Amino acid sequence: MTVRQQSWRVGASVLFGTLVLVASCGSGSGVEGDGDAGERLTERLNVLASHVESWRNAPSLAEAQRAAEAAANHVVGPDGPGFGDRDRDGEVRGPTDAGILPGLEGAPAGFALEAVNAGAPDCVVRDILGGAWDDPARRWAELDNAIANWQPTRNTFPSLASHAQRIVGWATLTLATGSLEEARTYAGHAELHIAISLGALNDC
Q1: Which single residue of 28, 117, 154, 192 has CA 20 to 30 Å from 200?
Q2: What is the pTM (predicted TM-score) of this model?
Q3: Each residue of 13-30: pLDDT tens digit?
């Protein structure tokens, strides 16, 4: 295993809350290419995990919503849908120069696509990007549609191939709820998706 391959695997084993992420999802060849791109994506995913942890363990609904805002903004970036003061408290949380996913018009490309172009494992395409992003507006419209049609008895988020997008979905529901219990439940779902995203840093 090369140093660059190891740099991906470091990010795939973290502990947050009660969730342990295992550092291997397969025996493939791992990453080749620009190690810096892999390190940037790893760093961003770990920051996202910290936002989700704060959301899950928030002592109040306001704090859960602030953390959910940070998580959503961190995924979409400043050129993505809904970026900004999502809870309307006068402060933008989760500021970032680019999102984990591409912007609405494809620029910036986002940290996941940047890493894929540098030789990231196929799992990053499958689990974080959820496939091709040749039409970013369409991909973000899929998220909007899933959120608009979500119901407690009809979870539409599994229709989204991107686990990063699903985190934005759960964050959006958190920002709309008046219940701390519901907010924490939604964060529990987000934890599963960040775990899968971190696991994608390994070849599969």
Answers
A1: 154
A2: 0.84
A3: 333 333 333 233 332 333
